Amino acid sequence: MASNPALENYDDVSSSDSEFDPPFLQPVNKEELLLARAQKRAEKKAEKHAKADVFKRMGDELYGNGKFEEAYIPYLEATQIWPSNLEYYIRLSMTYAKLHWYVPYDLKGT
């Protein structure tokens, strides 16, 4: 079995090459750590919002086809993923109204 000649000579590999230090050996300051943490949070938030938007579009598709009982499920899921987005609650309430899933408010209290 012939071995690979490129792997036989270890003298070609320089251990003092400072361009390729593993990430854990590179100096990191506080600002870089804070920036990396902020970027990671922003990425997670964007992923969460994208996932919620997928559910909203699913609900929109079903709502547009008149499938209101099926449409409320993706809207409800979207509100649970991104609870601060009022648009999802509005769409969910429109679906509830189409299904008559509400209690009418009686102003007289009778």
TrEMBL record:
Domain of life: Eukaryota
InterPro entries cross-referenced by the UniProt entry: TPR-like_helical_dom_sf, TPR_rpt
TPR repeats: 52-85
Sorted UniProt keywords: TPR repeat
UniProt region (Disordered), positions on chain: 1-23
Protein name: Uncharacterized protein
Organism: Candolleomyces eurysporus
The organism's taxonomic lineage, starting at the top: Eukaryota, Fungi, Dikarya, Basidiomycota, Agaricomycotina
